[in-house]
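User: Hey, quick favor. My workstation is busy. Could you predict this chain's structure for me?
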Amino acid sequence: QVQLVESGGGLVQSGGSLRLTCAASGLTFSDYGVGWYRQAPGKECELVASITKTSGITTYADSVKGRFTVSRDNDKNASYLDMNNLKPEDTAVYYCNADPTVQGLCFIWGAWGQGTQVTVSS
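Assistant: No problem, here it is.
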């Protein structure tokens, strides 16, 4: 069974940092790109960061550039989202997605985890 599990979320004060982990199983992880998405209640799900399956090229939403870093370790079947200088507007449920090509669309293509809550207080 293909499974993705996000972890590392929690409550942090503005300016703090968190590392989110996406642990994958049931797939050849190196065959998939990884997208990190987030969604707050009543708001649209958005692509935050991504990393390709081969070249390791990363992309970031303008709102998180310079603050977030996405990486992957294929030997550990994991992707990481390092979040620094967190802001209240970063509060959301964060999801990871594994797909041969990152689509930028939530909950449609590829495998998805259950999400992990990130709450940033001011």
